[in-house]
From TrEMBL:
Any one biological process term the GO annotation gives: regulation of DNA-templated transcription
Gene3D superfamilies recorded: 3.30.160.250, Met repressor-like
SUPFAM superfamilies: Ribbon-helix-helix, TTHA1013/TTHA0281-like
Superkingdom of origin: Bacteria
Domain HicB-like antitoxin of toxin-antitoxin system: 16-78
Organism: Lactonifactor longoviformis DSM 17459
Entry protein name: Predicted nuclease of the RNAse H fold, HicB family
InterPro entries: Arc_rbn_hlx_hlx, HicB-like, Ribbon_hlx_hlx, TA_system_antitoxin, TTHA1013/TTHA0281-like
């Protein structure tokens, strides 16, 4: 059975979002449901998050709640196959050609731009 120190040493993904309504920043760990905290600055919020992570894991261990280990990037190949309409394929090919980059690079750019606009 893993200990508190084992879990604390794992690299859990941390999400930091600006709280535009209240001010400051909100931090959560997607792999630790309900583990959330905040702070007036990013630095304070991150420091608070490390404390929140410890308290969350301690409580889960005490109560026998399963603790999921963080996802590993090695679990993802970075590739997937996508079928699209020919008209969209043409449009993507034309845009990428105008930008002077590969269609693959252009699609990665579009996906990353959209992901930044719509955070989880």
């Amino acid at each position: 059975m893993k200990t508190l120190n084992d879990y604390m040493a794992m690299s859990y993904r941390m999400e930091v979002l600006e709280d535009k309504d209240e001010g400051g920043f909100v931090v959560s760990y997607p792999d630790l449901p309900g583990c959330i905290t905040c702070g007036e600055t990013v630095e304070t919020a991150v420091a608070n998050a490390l404390d929140a992570k410890k308290v969350w894991i301690e409580a889960a261990l005490e109560d026998g709640i399963p603790i999921h280990e963080p996802d590993k990037l090695e679990d993802y190949s970075g590739q997937f196959k996508l079928r699209i309409p020919r008209s969209l394929h043409r449009s993507l090919a034309e845009h990428s050609k105008r930008e002077g980059i590969s269609m693959n690079q252009y699609c990665v750019y579009l996906l990353s731009r959209n992901d930044a606009v719509y955070p989880k």
